[in-house]
Write a structure and sequence with these properties.
Blueprint (H helix, E strand, L loop, with lengths): L6 E6 L15 E9 L2 E10 L2 E9 L1 H17 L6 E5 L6 E4 L3 H17 L15
Antiparallel strand pairs: 1-2, 1-5, 2-3, 3-4, 5-6
Helix pairs in contact: 1-2
């Protein structure tokens, strides 16, 4: 089975002053790895200045999409929300969304994630850049 990049989500916190948190070591992370056909591992890492807590789940693609849907919905109703969510999807450009715009974009995000799950691109070789003359 070819190697695959992961689907990654970075949940960027606000600082205590309400400004964007500038310490990426305190961002929560969700990493989704392809295990096989219709099977992924989801690793959620909740980070704080006290340390990290890690939760690991093995899910089908359908279960994974429901899980992500719930995560996005919970973010939209949070009383003390994250500032933004950054998505890293294999084969797509990186996307950064403010949490307050998340609700209207959930269908598009889930469609892109579902597309990645069903047609997960294998890691390709980087092409060497040709010197310019």
């Amino acid at each position: 089975m070819p190697a695959h990049r992961t689907i990654d989500f970075r949940f960027i916190r606000r600082s205590e002053t309400g400004q964007l948190q500038h310490d990426p070591n305190l961002d929560d992370m969700l990493k989704i790895s392809k295990l096989g056909e219709n099977l992924v591992r989801c690793v959620y890492t909740e980070r704080s200045s006290d340390g990290s807590m890690v939760d690991v789940s093995t899910l089908t693609y359908q279960q994974c999409l429901v899980y992500i849907y719930r995560v996005f919905n919970l973010l939209t109703i949070d009383e003390d929300p994250f500032e933004s969510v950054q998505l890293f999807l294999p084969g797509y450009p990186t996307v950064l969304l403010r949490v307050e715009t998340l609700r209207t974009n959930i269908p598009w995000l889930l469609e892109a994630i579902a597309s990645t799950c069903t047609q997960w691109p294998a890691i390709g070789r980087l092409q060497q850049q040709q010197p310019t003359t």
